Amino acid sequence: MQKKISLIYFLLTILFAANLRAQSNIPMDTSSQIPALYYREGKASYYANSLHGRRTASGQKYNKNKLTAAHLTLPLGTRVKVTNKKTGKWVIVTINDRGPYSRKYIIDLSYRAAKHLGMTQGKGYAKVVIEEQPKKDQPWPQKHVPEPAGQGLQK
User: Fold this and answer.
1) Residue 88: is its pLDDT beyond 80?
2) Does 124 share its domain with 66?
């Protein structure tokens, strides 16, 4: 009987030690190793209608009716959410060109994106927040989201 108790005690000790070892092999939090998504506040401008049909840095033709934008440093193909700080309206655009080349602005939007944000009436620019969107494995179909204040447009 005492041998059985000793054997059970021995097996429990081994299981406990194995469990502690397994727990010690859990990797540390790696969330700090994931690169942070781009975030910036500043002024946005938009393309002149006369540029419609011209080639962009990506090789695509600029289409004023698409949800696209120009940025100096973000990789071509990056999707960003642009929010008008005054109205709360937002739009998701794809970076397909380089610019703006004025230090006053941080992004140049297509006419459609600017119109949705309310930039085409008045000054021609707006204070915005730019937030990079996580990559998706599949391309987004262009779709429209209802436009009440606080809603946006997505590509």
Assistant:
1) yes
2) yes
In terms of phi and psi (left: phi > 0; alpha: psi -120 to 50; beta: otherwise), the region of 150 is: left
Residue 91 tokens read as 């739009």
The answer for residues whose C-beta is within 8 angstroms of residue 84's C-beta and 6 or more apart is: 90, 117, 118, 119, 126, 127, 128
CA dihedral 89, 63, 144, 109 (to 10 degrees): -20
In tens, the pLDDT along 124-142 reads 999 999 999 998 754 544 4
Do 97 and 69 form a contact (C-beta atoms < 8 A)? yes
| 45/110 Cα distance (integer angstroms) | 9
Give how many domains the chain has, as a whole number.
Answer: 2
Closest C-alpha among 134, 130, 91 to residue 107: 130
Please indicate, yes or no, if residue 32 is contained in any of the structural domains: no
What pTM, to 2 d.p., does this model score? 0.68
136: containing domain: 37-153
